Amino acid sequence: MNWEVIGIWLGALLSLSLYSFLYKDNPFYKFAEHLFVGMSAGYWVIYTIMNVLVPNWWQNMVPPSGGFQPIWIIPGVLGLFMLFRLIPKLSSYSRLSLALIVGTGAGLSMTAMLQTNALAQVHGTIISLGAGGGWFDWVSNIIMVTGVVCGLVYFFFSKPHEGVMGGAANIGITLLMVAFGASFGYTVMARISLLIGQTQFLLFDWLPTMGINL
Amino acid sequence: MAKFIEKLGTVDRRVIFLLMALAVILPLAFRMNLPIPIEEGPSKDLYDAIEALPPGSRVLLSFDYDPSTMPELQPMAVALAQHLMTKDIKIVSMALWPMGVSLGNEALTMVGDSLGREEYVDWVNLGYKTGGGVLIVRMGSNIQTVFPNDYDGNPIADMPVMEGVNKLGDFDMIISLSAGDPGIPAWVMMAGDRFNIPIGGGCTAVSAPQFYPYLGTGQMVGLLGGLKGAADYETMVRLEEDDAAPGTATPGMAAQSVAHLVIMLFIIIGNIAYLSTRQKKGGLR
After folding, report:
1. Across the strands, what pairs with B176?
2. Please, which residues bridge with residue B93 across strands?
3. CB neighbour list of residue B15: distance below 8 Å, 6 or more residues apart
4. Mutate to test the interface with B, among A22, A140, A189 (most CBs of B within 10 A)
5. Which of B 218-257 lie inside 8 A of A, CB atoms?
6. In the prediction, which pLDDT does B248 show?
7. In chain A, what are the domain boundaries?
8. Which residues contact B268 (CB under 8 A, 6 or more apart)?
9. Do residue B130 and residue A200 have CB atoms under 8 angstroms apart?
10. A203 CB contacts (<8 Å, ≥6 apart)?
């Protein structure tokens, strides 16, 4: 029995079942959808146990070389507290674990986030308008600085958007719309790419199993 | 004519789906080829940054994605692996996403075997660890405490590819192929800005716009955005390696272009139909 061919056929039939929703809702789509949800949940449970819990916690507490490290009971208990969210009477214990996660995460990323996404970006905007040399760089720098200033003016709500403020805010929102448009274009490209990937699978992996070579 | 335009505005969405399907299937089935001109930009910047690395350099390649974004990111993984291995650059790979491990292994094994590169000598896959940003910070001080063994359970201390690599700062570049979080932002924040290591990346088209500011400030040396970025890189790598196997992104670009034309056509038709209907109902305000 050729398992590779069976895998390709399963993938192809499930893909077609899911795409059949584009015509209208039907039992094939429902079956594929439920199968996907169930399989994903089961897969992630096993994957998390075998690739996160066992190597990062269990093997540290009970090393394969022997011995027992009692300190690792603490993260085990904190992990157990998270599961207490499922029991209403004990759910408040999960706050302890959550507090630790939020505190560590915030402490670690606060300065990094500020440096990477705020200070470095502000620094990148403070440039000589003529930096780069050519006329294209000159125009590009002016657009960038104008865009940043006008974008910020648009989000300044303590003064009515009238006169110069109104003009700057209009430029700001126009540039923001251009940015959203570009972002939407990228999103369309991404979705079409996924369709292309699946179509390539159907045309060049699945059809050849039936002797159809394009 | 006016009636026809109005009718176009109420066309059944299934007709649009069918036309979109044809726009993707026909260019692929007939192996339509459109030129992919290589211009100055983030893709070329990443290529040039890797070109500037001397042979024997070490690059950390992080596979931070899963099969749902394979059509965009897997061709990048293959093209990058091909470029790095052709230049005799040692690859240490890992994953911040669990499924990225096997996808990375697939790309590295395929390219490594085709170029005669040896696992543990020229490349190694350290595997997946949870933690995202915290994990990266720990790797900044000592990689072996985070990854004592590779994906197959072999101790990394004995591997020739890991000689001289103890912490993130020992890498000449880090490249993250990222489908979300954790991914490029975590590498830029926790490795690039903190340890001053050049960061390159590849990402899905959806997330590309959010990383452009990092390029403007020099926090990233280059970026491959979506299928276009992958096709750019495949084309650039093939410029040097004429006998290299064609990738999957380049043939996909013809279908992508035709699909985009169909979408633009429908946007124009939809707007004309909308304006025509509005005019009929009481004129433009």
Report:
1. B62, B201
2. B61, B125
3. none
4. A189
5. 218-219, 225-228, 248, 251-252, 255-256
6. 81
7. 1-68, 85-126, 129-214
8. none
9. no
10. A214, B25, B28, B29
Q: Where along chain B do its domains lie?
A: 2-30+252-282, 42-247
Match 């979080």 to its residue by tokens: B181
**Environment class of A143 (CB within 10 Å of its CB; exposed 0-12, middle 13-18, buried 19+):** exposed
- List the pLDDT tens digit at each of the 285 positions of chain B: 777 777 777 888 999 999 999 999 999 999 998 888 888 899 999 999 999 999 999 999 999 999 889 999 999 999 999 999 999 999 999 999 988 999 999 999 999 999 999 999 999 999 998 888 889 999 999 999 899 989 888 999 989 999 999 999 999 999 999 999 899 999 999 999 999 999 999 999 999 999 999 998 999 999 999 999 999 999 999 866 656 566 788 889 999 999 999 999 999 988 888 888 888 776 555
Please report the pLDDT score of residue B6 as a whole number: 75
Q: Do B24 and B258 form a contact (C-beta atoms < 8 A)?
A: yes
The total of other beta-carbon atoms located within 10 Å of residue B198's CB is 21
Residues 6+ apart with CB under 8 A from B236: B38, B43, B44, B47, B83
Give the whole-angstrom CA distance, residue B148 versus residue B144: 5
- The residue-averaged pLDDT of A7-17 equals 96
CA dist B216 and B41 (Å) reads: 11
Q: Could you tell me if A90 and B119 are in contact, meaning their C-beta atoms sit under 8 angstroms apart?
A: no
From B71, B206, B263, residue closest to A196, measured CB to CB: B71
Instruction: Please compute the mean of the pLDDT values over residues A61-71 and round it to a whole number.
Output: 91
Is the predicted ipTM greater than 0.90, yes or no? no
Q: HEC string of B200-218?
A: EEEECHHHHHHHHHHHHCC
Q: What letter does residue B178 receive in the DSSP assignment?
A: E
Q: For residue B38, how many C-alpha atoms fall within 13 Å in the half-sphere facing its CB?
A: 18
Chain B interface disruption, residue of A25, A192, A198, most B CBs within 10 A: A192
B259 touches chain A (CB under 8 A): yes
Q: Is the pTM of this model over 0.90?
A: no
d(CA B64, CA A214) in angstroms, rounded, equals 33
Distance CA A114, CA A110 (A): 6
The amino acid that residue A134 corresponds to is: G
Question: Nearest-CA neighbor of B226 among B42, B32, B5, B53?
Answer: B42
The CATH number given to B42-247 is: 3.40.50.1220
